[in-house]
Specification:
alpha/beta; binds adenine; 35% helix; Purine nucleoside phosphorylase DeoD-type; uridine phosphorylase activity; transferase; five-stranded mixed barrel; globular; Rossmann fold; DeoD-type; purine-nucleoside phosphorylase activity
């Protein structure tokens, strides 16, 4: 047990998928894993461990935003020995070529600040995804004929962003999408020598104002979960 995770030692697999929403962790575990067992529910942050094609995997909610993800990822890596952590979540599209329901494989995650900013100070550390996970995810997306993009994303610390010029500059510099967790996950992976990737589904669009209807979300999110699982175990 740690401060925020009630799992017993050994209850957490070396490979952990991290959706922001704890109920999506429950849905993904019940949909994709064999014999899913609830291993954490402290503060309602549900986590399940089960098997996918004979491989042990945990699906653990991360909560919204980098401070929340940082708590769970720190404890999963440092106390439970997680070695591969893949964020599965939604993002806002920031390029015309990026459409609603597309998948973004985040090669790097830019940010203004993260929970690690105190370490880096004025240095702009550019945390990358793990190359093998990224390569495997690309292969999985190709096989599934998913509409996917590989490139940079931006991890914001605000959802209701009052800085329109910032988003314009992100778009001008090729940022594919905005979400709120990946940069800190990549920082922690670099710090502790573990593998990380963010596989994201475009749920809304900053240029067009479109948003994914809630009834469509499950199917689109399912593709993302399977790409993440393929990437981890290829
Ligand atoms: N996650 C999904 N859509 C988002 C957006 N527009 N901004 C930040 N995070 C998001």
């Amino acid at each position: 047990m740690t401060v925020h995770i009630g799992a017993a030692p050994g209850d957490i697999a070396e490979t952990v998928l991290l959706p922001g929403d704890p109920y999506r962790a429950k849905w993904a575990a019940e949909t994709f894993l064999e014999n899913p067992q609830l291993v954490n529910e402290v503060r309602g942050m549900l986590a399940y461990t089960g098997e996918w094609k004979g491989n042990r995997v945990t699906i653990h909610g991360s909560g919204m935003g980098m401070p929340s993800l940082s708590i769970y990822a720190n404890e999963l890596i440092r106390d439970y020995n997680a070695k591969t952590l893949i964020r599965i979540g939604s993002c806002g599209g920031m390029q015309d070529k990026v459409k609603i329901r597309d998948i973004i494989l985040a090669m790097t995650a830019s940010s203004i600040s993260t929970p690690s900013s105190g370490i880096f100070k004025e240095f702009n550390f550019a945390p990358p995804a793990d190359w093998t996970l990224l390569k495997n995810a690309v292969a999985a997306a190709e096989t599934r004929k998913s509409n996917y993009h590989v490139g940079s994303i931006y991890s914001s610390d605000v959802f209701y962003d009052e800085r329109p010029d910032l988003n314009k500059e992100m778009t001008r510099h090729g940022i594919l999408g905005v979400e709120m967790e990946a940069a800190e996950l990549y920082n922690l992976a670099a710090r502790y020598g573990v593998r990380a990737l963010a596989v994201l589904t475009v749920s809304d669009h900053l240029l067009t104002g479109e948003a994914l209807p809630s009834e469509d979300r499950e199917k689109s999110f399912g593709d993302m979960v399977e790409i993440a699982l393929e990437a981890a175990f290829t």
